[in-house]
Structures are given as C-alpha cells and as structure tokens.
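Hey team,

Filing this mostly as a record. A colleague (T.K.) asked me to run one chain through the structure pipeline before their review meeting, and I want the input and output archived in the tracker in case anyone asks later how it was produced. No errors, nothing strange. Just documentation.

Input sequence:
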Amino acid sequence: MNTLMNSSLPRLSLLAMLAATMVTAGCADMGMTETQQRTAMGAGIGAVAGGLLGNATGGQNTVRGAAIGAAAGGIIGNVWSRRMEAQKQAMEQATQGTGVDVVRTADNQLKLNIPNDISFATGSAAIKPELRQVLDQFGNGLKENPGLMVRVVGHTDSSGSDAVNNPLSVNRADSVRNYLSDRGVASSRIETAGRGSREPVASNDTAEGRAKNRRVEIFMRDPGQPS
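Output structure:
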C-alpha cells in the first residue's frame, strides 16, 4: 500500500495544481468575492487530494475521501475571519478618497498603507489631522474586537542619513501606537517597528517616488482565525 500511495503523490500534486487553476478561473467568471474564491479553491483542491488518497487506499473510499477533502480544503482556503472582513469593509468606507490603500495580505492580515500626504510632514513624527480621522475609525474597530492585534511599521525616503531616518521611522510608528492607546486601545496589542529607508516602494530619484516611500503601514491580524 505504501508503494501505491507514494506513486500517487506526484499525480496528486499535479491534479491539485490543475484544480486550483480551473477553480480560480471559474470563480472569477462567476463574479465571486475574494473570500468566496479562496473557499472554493480550497474545496476544489481538497476534493482532488481526498479523492486520490481514498483511491490509493481502496476504491470504495474515493467518494468519501473527496467529500472530506473538500470540507477540509474549504476551511483552509478561507482562513479569513468574518470580523476581519467586517473590518476591511469598514476601513474601505472610512478611507475613501484619502489615498489610503486597504488590502488583504497573502497571509490574511488587513493592511493599511498610509501615504505621506495624509500622515506626517517631512522630517516629522507628528500625526496630521487627516490621519487622525482614519485612526479614530481603526481604533473603534479594535475596541469592538479585543482579540485583534496590530503592527505599525514606519518608513522614510532616502533623504538624509540612516542616523536620522531610522529613529524617525520608529517615532512615526510609535506616534500611531500612542494615538490609538490614548483612545482606549491597549498598547500591549500594538507592535511597532521602523524600517528607515530600507524598504522603498518607489524610486527615491524623484520627488513623487520619495513621497510614496514616506509612509506608515498598519497591519491588523486575528490570531484566532477562522471564526
């Protein structure tokens, strides 16, 4: 039986990849949401894997294995909790027209990419009024969901030396944490870090690129996913 199962593994991997491709294409054509697409893709891959393993251990187990695999795959493919989806929608509404990007990351965190023009003045760690409005909404979501955790990462452009940029990026992240803490969010839930100019998202050779690099990123995660 071990020989049979081992010989099925390459076939399982190939079919799983094919299933992922077919399901993803089909979901897009059907207009599914991102969450629905991930669930369907996980279920499809799980069904193929479960069916093959069931067949490898006896043909009578094929259907049962496919059903179990589909259920397990659906859960794995949708490790994005309902409260995280609710927070994403709330922040999308709160940041409309501000230039803030609200996205779901590949590892199922909610990420706010906050550009320089609404966050901090050049060389400053003082929060602008525009960012306060965003943080007020963000903080409300945190207070309503005490299990959610946050990481704030500050960035600068390449102007100036690391001796200036590194502490400035940390101070910007700390300013966000302090603002949220002052509004009732426990500081123990908020990690901060500064990257200085080490992780640019645009060229530092132009003023426009430098402005994009002067930013703050806020990540929200749900340690208890799925729920």
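Quick notes for T.K.: The first strand starts at residue 101 and ends at 104. The chain has a mean pLDDT of 79.
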